[in-house]
């Protein structure tokens, strides 16, 4: 399916694109280098998938002296969304869903968070929030939704800050029918 066309229609004028991640690289680099004068500097391109990578360096001198060092490299976006959406809803449910907005490297960032739905969900109230990301770099943005009918709905969130950084996520929410009453036990059923 062409998700970018669906997304652009749902997102309106905001020009963020959905990141479709599928090729998760677990080993970012494996390389052998020869140091000059006991020092070595190298550069590499980190993989596009977000996460923490452990960087290990091993050294051996011509005299047989060994050494090693280890550090972490965190790969992240300037602006990113971590969705907070229920696995399913039942017809008639009113619930909140949204995302944790993370802004890296800056404090007091104004982020516009836009929501759209396709299918048997509706947004109650505003579909655009202004989220102020403070000193800890994270803030929640939540929308109120209502489940209208049985089916599958697409819930799309788009975030954009004042510097033009953006991120977007699209999730599928199952809307299920009402459940019949369940009796766990009563005195009459005890033998």
Record keyword descriptors for this entry.
mainly beta; 11 strands; four-stranded antiparallel beta sheet; five-stranded mixed beta sheet; elongated
Gross morphology is elongated
The portion of residues assigned to helices is under 10%
Structural class: mainly beta
As a whole number of angstroms, the C-alpha radius of gyration is 24 Å
Binned strand content: over 45%
- Mean pLDDT reading: 82
Number of helices: 1
What about the largest sheet? 5 strands, mixed
Distance between the termini: 56 Å
Helix-strand sequence: HEEEEEEEEEEE
Commentary on this structure:
This protein is mainly beta and 191 residues long. It is built from 1 helix and 11 strands. The strands form 3 sheets. The chain has a 5-stranded mixed beta sheet with strand order 4-11-10-6-8, with helices on one face. It has a 4-stranded antiparallel beta sheet with strand order 3-5-9-7, with no helix packed on it. β1 and β2 form a beta hairpin. The chain is elongated and about 80 Å long. The N terminus is likely disordered.
Summary?
The protein has 191 residues and is mainly beta. Helix content is 5%, strand content 48%.
Set down the secondary structure blueprint.
Elements lengths: L2 H9 L39 E10 L5 E10 L3 E6 L3 E3 L3 E10 L5 E10 L2 E4 L3 E6 L4 E10 L3 E11 L4 E11 L15
Parallel strand pairs: 4-11
Antiparallel strand pairs: 1-2, 3-5, 5-9, 6-8, 6-10, 7-9, 10-11
